[in-house]
Amino acid sequence: MCMLALAATLAMAPARAQQPTQPQPRTAPSAAPGRPAAASIVDLPGAAPRNAVGALLDRIESGTVSAPQWAEVRPVTLAQLEDQLRRPELQASIGKGSIAVLYPNVDEPFRSAFVSMIQGIEERTKLRVRSYPVDPKVDTAELNTTLKHNGTRVVIALGRQGLNATAGLDREISVLVGGVLLLSESENVAGISMTPDPALLFARLRALLPELRRVIVVYNPQKSEWLMKLARDAARAQGLELSSHVAGDLARAAQLYPQLINAADPRRDAVWLPHDTTTVEESTILPLVLRESWNSGVPLFSSNVLHVKKGALFAMVPNNVELGRTLASSAMGMIAGDAKRRSLVPLRELQTAINVRTANHMGLNLGYQQQRAFDFVYPQP
């Protein structure tokens, strides 16, 4: 499921569980008004149906694209950006539509996540940008003509559907990608993946459980090798060992997890669930891993916030407005002449969710002040 983290952002915004005296959550407006709150019960061991959010996103986000050689995204510093924004020629360029946004033409609650990203883009540029909702069967030739007519120099493509719509654009129009999961180096795109940066995940893990020494992960190299390269360096920086295990199919993953968790030391080991649709399949693998983790006491953390609602200890979730701001900074840098060759980077604009019931089960009793360090707390009181 290529957009599960985005689905998580949408699903969990109204479900923030707070103590009566806690302040209001600092969340992006990613859920539609009036959307019912999530259940207050943590869905622990047992099979769970595939989430409807994921099912819909599978339909709207599926497909691949042969992308041109795009320049790498490199966010400029705030001071540099402010200097660039003061330049009259740059203000005039943006005002004429040199930055455009393509985003999936979908209904709520999914639309709100993309709207939040666009909000962040406009806050950073301090100007309205041209935004184009695109359908799966968009006429890319007509879109290309429209963008060129409007003087577009950089397109920020949101979601897999937005990325697909860039396939027919002229090479003179640079493309930055955001809001897409499981992009690999082979897709040759520049932008920000929705996959959380392992460095931030592991730093949060060590802050919660300082005695931990090893992170266990099962992954499919065809989907997650690029992420594992980053994870190995991130683990080393935190004084952790990354114990990675390859599973090319669901059957191998189902075989590995019980073996690894049963052999793990709950005081020194933790299991990480990355965004990998092979090894973290939602209807079979996830209930299995949750059950094994709960019974053994081995901490389980995830890159997907929906797993926290089901019983994982913690996860990190995109901050859509901040993501938009970072993409805007990168686009501004490209317009200003920053054309250094770069590639896809993991998401660093993140918020954190924790499951206090799971924490208590594992002997990690978080007080009120400690809970305030998290943006979302489950289950609801």
Query: What's the helix count?
Result: 15
Poorly predicted residue ranges = 1-76
Cα-to-Cα separation, first versus last residue:
30 Å
Strand order of the largest sheet: 7-6-8-9-10-12-13
Assign the structural class, choosing from mainly alpha, mainly beta, alpha/beta, alpha+beta, or little secondary structure.
alpha/beta
Radius of gyration: 21 Å
- Approximate helicity band: 25-40%
Beta-strand residue percentage: 15-25%
The major pleated sheet works out as: 7 strands, mixed
Shape: elongated
SSE order, one letter for each helix or strand:
HHHHEHEHEHEEHEHEHEHEHEHEEHHE
Please tally the β strands and state the result: 13
Query: If you average the pLDDT, what whole number results?
Result: 78
Describe this structure in words.
This protein is an alpha/beta fold. The protein has 15 helices and 13 strands. Helix 5 (110-125) packs across helix 13, helix 8 (198-208) packs across helix 9 (221-237) and helix 10 packs parallel to helix 11 (285-296).
Lay out the secondary structure.
Blueprint: H1 4-12, H2 52-61, H3 78-86, H4 88-95, E1 99-104, H5 110-125, E2 130-134, H6 140-149, E3 154-158, H7 159-164, E4 174-180, E5 191-196, H8 198-208, E6 214-219, H9 221-237, E7 241-246, H10 250-262, E8 269-273, H11 285-296, E9 300-302, H12 306-310, E10 314-318, H13 320-335, E11 344-347, E12 350-355, H14 356-361, H15 368-371, E13 376-378
Parallel strand pairs: 1-2, 1-3, 3-4, 4-5, 5-11, 6-7, 6-8, 8-9, 9-10, 12-13
Antiparallel strand pairs: 10-12
Helix pairs in contact: 5-13, 8-9, 10-11
Name the descriptors:
alpha/beta, seven-stranded mixed sheet, elongated, 381 residues, 15 helices
